[in-house]
């Protein structure tokens, strides 16, 4: 089974952990990233993910780039992917980058899209193309 991690999953461990929710999510993200690094979980990356990470805060960029190399598959952006993203964007009222992430995850045949973005998580009930979970929900589900 392949999963797809939103950019915020890679960056969450470096966020301010003073809020309990952020701290729990950060710990969950670290667990997921370690499992990917050890080969226990397969993940997909994409051009939009790389773009966002390469334009992240320098410290987050330095921390996150090595994790990209552990992915099983990389999805390149092309016209077909952009068209799929536009359909998803209109259908589910998504931001363009979120739609590109989801389209990439779908193209990679990922079973689960993991994100800390509440707006996307709330749409899990209506988005049928892929299952969307928070990192905490994901860990609960696989344990």
How would you describe this protein?
The longest helix has 18 residues. This protein has one domain: Rossmann fold (3-Layer(aba) Sandwich). The chain has 143 residues and is of the alpha/beta class. The chain is built from 8 helices and 5 strands. Strands 3-2-1-4-5 form a 5-stranded parallel beta sheet.
Quick synopsis:
By secondary structure, the chain is of the alpha/beta class. The chain has helices spanning 7-11, 20-37, 47-54, 58-68, 79-92, 96-107, 118-122, 135-142; strands spanning 2-5, 42-46, 73-75, 112-114, 131-133. Helix 5 (79-92) packs across helix 6 (96-107).
Q: For the record, what CATH class applies?
A: Alpha Beta
C-alpha geometry: globular
Tally of DSSP helical segments: 8
Please state the CA-atom Rg, rounded to the nearest Å. Answer: 14 Å
**What is the CATH fold-level name?**
Rossmann fold
Key terms for this structure?
single chain, alpha/beta, five-stranded parallel β-sheet, 8 helices, 5 strands, globular
């Amino acid at each position: 089974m392949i999963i797809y991690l939103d950019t915020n999953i890679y960056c969450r461990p470096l966020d301010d952990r003073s809020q309990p929710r952020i701290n729990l999510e950060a710990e969950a993200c670290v667990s997921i990233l370690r499992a990917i690094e050890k080969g226990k979980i397969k993940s997909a990356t994409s051009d939009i993910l790389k773009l966002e990470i390469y334009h992240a805060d320098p410290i987050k960029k330095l921390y996150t780039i090595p994790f990209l190399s552990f992915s099983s598959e990389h999805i390149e952006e092309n016209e077909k992917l952009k068209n799929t993203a536009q359909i998803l964007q209109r259908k589910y009222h998504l931001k363009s980058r979120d739609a590109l992430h989801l389209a990439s995850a779908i193209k990679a045949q990922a079973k689960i899209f993991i994100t800390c973005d509440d707006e996307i998580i709330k749409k899990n009930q209506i988005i049928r193309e892929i299952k969307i979970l928070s990192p905490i929900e994901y860990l609960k589900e696989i344990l």
